[in-house]
Amino acid sequence: MFSGRTTTTISSPAHGPLDYNSLRPSFATLAPLFGLTMISLLPIGVGALFVYWAMPLSTGLQLISAVFGGLLVLAGARFFWPLSADIPDAIKQYHAMVYAWHSAELDKYQSSDGMITAQQMSEWSYTERDMRHVALAALWLILEQPRSLSIERLTKGPMQLNIGHRAFKLVDMTQDGAAGFLDLCARAGVISGRGPRAAGTIAILDSRQAALKILSEASRNPAMFGSDGDGN
After folding, report:
1. Chain segment 65-124, per-residue pLDDT in tens
2. How far is it, in rounded angstroms, from Cα 106 to Cα 102?
3. What gap in Å lies between CA 76 and CA 81, rounded to an integer?
């Protein structure tokens, strides 16, 4: 039995999946890099002095001094270049990441016109994940035997069971629910020609056969609940 409970789903732009503060270049992380960069200048300076003192290369000792100084300069430069590039790269990459995420959030904000969407659903609102709803929709299909199905037709009012002069409410259809039901009918082969802007036409005139195909197709949904006694 339906309990008539109502749930409200509120959607809004999600926060970034990363902690910006943990990735932000700080003095604690940049200071060691800066210190190593400055230290790497020491062998370059010492090597340059050895090369300077060895000039002109008139003796073997001067030649050895010049070679040793050149190796110091080369080794220092190999360390200085990547270390000096790491600091500005870290800063640029951080700001590029923040800009990219802010741009994505802005696009999301603009696409929703800055509105927070709240969707209220009750136990009477159709969802394909609940076999009870699908069964009630299939029952309505058998009893009503509509000539055509469309979102406008399904959302015009609640699906009702008419007995005599009384009408009993079966299930409500929202825009999304109606679209999902039409997609389910299309997968079951009950309607043909279903498209993004086309409701399709009924392909199976036997409403009982159509209902059985709909139930069979719905049972294949791995997200289905309420069919094994786990519903309310």
Report:
1. 888 888 888 888 888 888 777 778 878 888 888 788 778 777 777 776 656 655 555 556
2. 6
3. 9
pLDDT band at 129 (very low <50, low <70, confident <90, very high): confident
* Residue 75 CA: distances (Å) to CA of 10, 53, 66: 60, 19, 14
Minimum mean pLDDT among 114-128, 171-185, 209-223: which range?
114-128
Whole-model pTM: value is 0.41
The reported pLDDT for the residue numbered 178 is 83
Dist CA 143 CA 227 (whole Å)? 22
Residue ranges covered by each domain of the chain: 20-111, 124-218
Other Cβ atoms within 10 Å of 177 Cβ, number: 21
φ, ψ of residue 10 in degrees (nearest 5)? -115, 125
Show Cβ contacts of residue 29 under 8 Å, excluding neighbours closer than 6 positions.
Answer: 90
For 160, phi then psi, to 5°, come to -125, 150
CB 69 within 8 A of CB 50: yes
* φ, ψ at 125 (rounded to 5°): -80, 130
